[in-house]
Specification:
Layout lengths: L2 H12 L8 H5 L1 E9 L7 E4 L1 H12 L2 E8 L3 E2 L3 E12 L4 E13 L2 E8 L2 H8 L29
Parallel strand pairs: 1-7
Antiparallel strand pairs: 1-2, 3-5, 4-5, 5-6, 6-7
Length: about 160
């Protein structure tokens, strides 16, 4: 398959929310394809091969009434495809989660050989546990009259 075929498969998988169709993407996974996701979620870890990738999504589906993606854009390089997505999910416990994730795929010789899903694991963990996702306001960083001492940072900038 060509790079354009792989990009089209990624587009079909992650564009259009309810229209998401992963079948063309799965067909382009190499036999030794590796998929990784943070282990701070119940179904995180490393999975090898197309069968484990499909099984992973089936397990994820057990937590959700519905879950879909809308790609913000698809960024293509000579060996990678980066897909920032917006998510819309409704948990089995009736909690809506709208979030942003990022898929990173690597491909070689017409096949997808590796992928990692970067997620907001705190928000996902809240929803899976039956809690409304927490949201925090931005810090108030405006200068204050009493700010006369130099700021000591925990890291060197």
């Amino acid at each position: 398959m060509s790079r354009d075929d792989i990009v089209r498969a990624v587009e079909l998988a992650y564009t259009g929310y309810e229209k998401n169709d992963m079948r063309p993407l799965v067909a382009m996974l190499s036999p030794d394809f590796e998929f990784e996701m943070t282990d701070s979620l119940p179904y995180g870890g490393k999975y090898v091969g197309p069968d484990q990738y499909v099984a992973f999504w089936r397990e994820v589906g057990k937590e959700w009434e519905s879950f879909s993606y809308e790609a913000n854009e698809i960024i293509v390089t000579d060996e990678s495809i980066i897909v920032p997505v917006k998510t819309d999910g409704l948990s089995k416990k009736g909690i809506r989660m709208r979030n942003e994730h990022l898929f990173h795929f690597k491909y070689r010789d017409g096949q997808i050989v590796w992928a990692r899903l970067y997620v907001d694991s705190a928000r996902g963990r809240d929803v899976i546990a039956g809690l409304e996702p927490q949201r925090f306001p931005a810090l108030d960083l405006r200068p204050k009259d009493a700010d006369t001492e130099p700021v000591k940072l925990p890291v060197n900038l």
